Amino acid sequence: NLGAAIGVSEPAIYRHFASKREILAGIVDRLAAIRNETWERSQGEKASPVAALQMFFIYQAIKFEEFPPLAIILFPEDIFRNDSELLTRIHFIMNETALNIEDLIKDAQKNNYFRPEIDSHTAALLLTGGYRALVSGWRSEHLKDPSVGLVQKAEVFFRNTIQILA
Predict the structure, then answer these.
(1) What's the pTM?
(2) HSE, side-chain direction, 13 A CA sphere, residue 145
(3) Which of 42, 43, 46, 76 has the fewest CB atoms in 10 Å of its CB?
(4) Which residues contact 53 (CB under 8 A, 6 or more apart)?
(5) Phi then psi for 147, rounded to 5 degrees?
(6) Sign of dihedral through CA atoms 94, 100, 103, 104?
(7) In the chain, where does DSSP find H-type helix?
(8) Could you give the angle at which helices 49-66 and 84-110 cross, rounded to 10 degrees?
(9) Any residues with CB less than 8 A from the CB of 26 and at least 6 apart, and which?
């Protein structure tokens, strides 16, 4: 299926990859690189922790719009369910992202952007879980209508979530 989708033969794929697992490992590596790229980009431009959070989620939405299958990183059980090692790697990436988001939330609280009485871990779950639900809904809509965008939905989601935390 992969060969047909990209226009090459199955033997051509296996000249570059020894197994399906190696292909999936390459996907995990690419997903991690994209997450790192969007994280670094959002941190490099930050004027505030809130702006950095917003830019991270928006940059992710841009990447998902450019190549919708990337959204699979938010739903690793779909593709990596039969390989516990790869699923563990994906969960590590997701947990690392959640901790980074939690640190930005703590920073936002210290700088009076967010209410200090809100638990930073819960706020991170609110942001990441809400974003995951948003992307899930977008994936379904996008399958029916490829013109449906995610960035605008992410901007509205983030703006409204920030109002709850502020």
Answers:
(1) 0.81
(2) 7
(3) 43
(4) 42, 101, 104, 105, 108, 127, 158
(5) -80, -10
(6) negative
(7) 2-6, 10-16, 20-44, 49-66, 77-80, 84-110, 120-144, 151-165
(8) 150
(9) 17
**pLDDT mean across residues, the chain:** 87
Cα–Cα distance, 66 to 12 (Å, whole number): 26
Residue labelled with tokens 């994936």: 139
- Euclidean distance between CA atoms 71 and 63, whole angstroms: 9
Predicted local distance difference test score (pLDDT) of residue 46: 65
**Residue showing tokens 């988001």:** 101
Which of the 8 DSSP states describes residue 45? T
Written as six digits, the tokens of 19 are 């197994």
- Site of tokens 């995610």: 150
CB 49 within 8 A of CB 107: yes
| Of the candidates 116, 119, 120, 97, the residue with the CA atom closest to the CA atom of residue 43 | 97
Q: What is the mean pLDDT of residues 2-24?
A: 79
